Automatic annotation (TrEMBL):
Position of the signal peptide: 1-21
Alphabetically ordered keywords of this record: Glycoprotein, Signal
Residues forming coiled coils: none
Record carries keyword Protein biosynthesis: no
Top-rank taxon: Eukaryota
A Pfam family matched in the record: CLN5
Reaction it catalyzes: 2 1-hexadecanoyl-sn-glycero-3-phospho-(1'-sn-glycerol) = 1-hexadecanoyl-sn-glycero-3-phospho-(3'-hexadecanoyl-1'-sn-glycerol) + sn-glycero-3-phospho-(1'-sn-glycerol); 2 1-acyl-sn-glycero-3-phospho-(1'-sn-glycerol) = 1-acyl-sn-glycero-3-phospho-(3'-acyl-sn-1'-glycerol) + sn-glycero-3-phospho-(1'-sn-glycerol); 2 1-tetradecanoyl-sn-glycero-3-phospho-(1'-sn-glycerol) = 1-tetradecanoyl-sn-glycero-3-phospho-(3'-tetradecanoyl-1'-sn-glycerol) + sn-glycero-3-phospho-(1'-sn-glycerol); S-hexadecanoyl-L-cysteinyl-[protein] + H2O = L-cysteinyl-[protein] + hexadecanoate + H(+)
Full protein name: Bis(monoacylglycero)phosphate synthase CLN5
InterPro entries: CLN5
Protein source organism: Staurois parvus
Record family assignment: Belongs to the CLN5 family.
Length: 327
């Protein structure tokens, strides 16, 4: 007997055979050979990396230099809302560096080119069937550490010390990592809240950049202080085993799946920006009905669409301890 999920997918013409049985979890984050130019349609409310180096370079340090590494964390949009989002443990992470020879400070962070909403949900353009995504993310490296920003409501603490030679190796790795990991992914998708439950999809955001940098530093020989608490914000969706639906060319367009395309378009419509207060209330009800009552979520990952059969508690925001690397 078909499950409700399989029946619903069959009714809109989605195959539920083959790929599910062969799928490895979590789905690996796809990397690319180079970073493409952004589409002019995508516009940021706040300029990405306004004081960073225009060519994306990172200054070289002298091999004999000593570089202090700092853990940086502050509430998201602290510059506009202060500690508001910090009360919900929605935090942004970055890394600071200080040269002992020059006394100069630097900050490295990875975040959305066009703000979080654009990375999480698409634009639905008039008379265009396919949703349009502005979901690139990138590394930003600039001189200086804004002490007030990080200390006011967050964290600015030293976690390790490395040589100038190790820093230069890290700088090369950051550039390679940035050019091959090009898009932001908000959601972590798991089977349940149990510690060992299956991870279907992992996020790719500011905190994951920090964790990758820490791991690379460990590989290069850095030793981290162990007495420092290192917690990170994660947004979870909870779902039964996801079902692969296809990419843009197989779902949308003249040879696509019309019924599935319409379902995906309808699903994303309540998440559109710039709604009136009345429309926003109606959209919240529609989102609740689709995700909780109908237990349906459509995830866009690796430029492909997946069906998530949602399950309680549906969505959570956690602030989890992930220890510093040990050698």
């Amino acid at each position: 007997m078909m499950t409700r999920v399989a029946l619903a997918l069959a009714l809109i013409g989605v195959s539920v055979c083959g790929v599910v049985g062969l799928q490895l979890w979590p789905v690996p984050y796809r990397r690319f050979d180079y970073r493409p130019k952004t589409d002019p349609y995508c516009q940021a409310q706040y300029t990405f990396c306004p004081t960073g180096y225009a060519d994306g370079s990172i200054p070289l340090m002298k091999d004999e230099d000593t570089i202090e590494i700092f853990r940086l964390q502050a509430p998201v949009w602290e510059f506009k809302y202060g500690d508001l989002l910090g009360h919900f443990k929605i935090m942004h992470d970055a890394i600071g560096f200080k040269s002992s020879l020059t006394g100069k400070n630097y900050t490295a962070e990875w975040y959305e080119l066009f703000q979080l909403g654009n990375c999480t949900f698409p634009h639905l353009r008039p008379d265009v069937e396919e949703p349009f995504w502005c979901n690139q993310g990138a590394a930003c490296f600039f001189e200086g550490i804004d002490d007030e920003h990080w200390r006011s409501y967050g964290t600015l603490v030293p976690v390790a010390t490395i040589s100038g030679s190790m820093f230069n190796q890290l700088a090369k790795w950051i550039k390679e990592d940035n050019n091959t990991g090009i898009y932001y992914e908000t959601w972590t998708v798991k089977d349940s809240m149990a510690p060992n439950s299956t991870l279907w999809f992992d996020s790719y955001d500011c905190s994951k950049f920090v964790l990758r940098v820490y791991q690379k530093l460990s590989e290069l020989g850095a030793t981290f202080k162990k007495s420092i608490e290192t917690k990170y914000t994660r947004l979870f969706l909870y779902s039964g085993e996801p079902v692969y639906l296809g990419n843009a060319s197989t779902i949308f367009g003249p040879h696509g799946n019309k019924s599935l395309a319409a379902e995906i378009h309808k699903f994303y419509f309540p998440y559109r920006p710039h709604q009136s207060f009345k429309d926003l209330l109606l959209s919240i009800l529609e989102i609740y009905g689709k995700s909780v009552l109908q237990k349906t979520f459509y995830l866009y990952y690796n430029f492909e669409y997946w069906y998530l059969p949602m399950k309680p508690p549906y969505i959570t925001i956690t602030y989890e301890e992930i220890p510093l690397p040990s050698r």
